[in-house]
Amino acid sequence: MTNLKPDEIRKMSREEREQKLKELKSELITLRYQAKMGHIDNPAKIRNIKRTIARILTINREEELGLRRGKQ
């Protein structure tokens, strides 16, 4: 599952997020290589992975700064 919602990411532990981040970055490298070779099935998957990576990094940073985003 590459399209995680922010609420789903926040429910993960820090270690789970770090593991997911590694998996997504590895998958992104693979997809970029496939795109370069012209063998990619779904080009939108690259964009979705990049967005999920950004979400994870943003939530990690929020925790570092002690911020809490969510429904008010």
UniProtKB/TrEMBL annotation:
A Pfam short name: Ribosomal_L29
Entry GO terms, CC: cytosolic large ribosomal subunit
CDD domains cross-referenced by the UniProt entry: Ribosomal_L29_HIP
InterPro entries: Ribosomal_protein_uL29, Ribosomal_uL29, Ribosomal_uL29_CS, Ribosomal_uL29_sf
Keyword tags: Ribonucleoprotein, Ribosomal protein
One Gene Ontology term of the molecular function aspect: structural constituent of ribosome
Residues that span the membrane, as ranges: none
An individual GO BP term: translation
Family: Belongs to the universal ribosomal protein uL29 family.
Xref: PANTHER family: 60S RIBOSOMAL PROTEIN L35/50S RIBOSOMAL PROTEIN L29, LARGE RIBOSOMAL SUBUNIT PROTEIN UL29C
HAMAP family reported for this sequence: Ribosomal_uL29 (MF_00374)
UniProt-recorded name of the protein: Large ribosomal subunit protein uL29
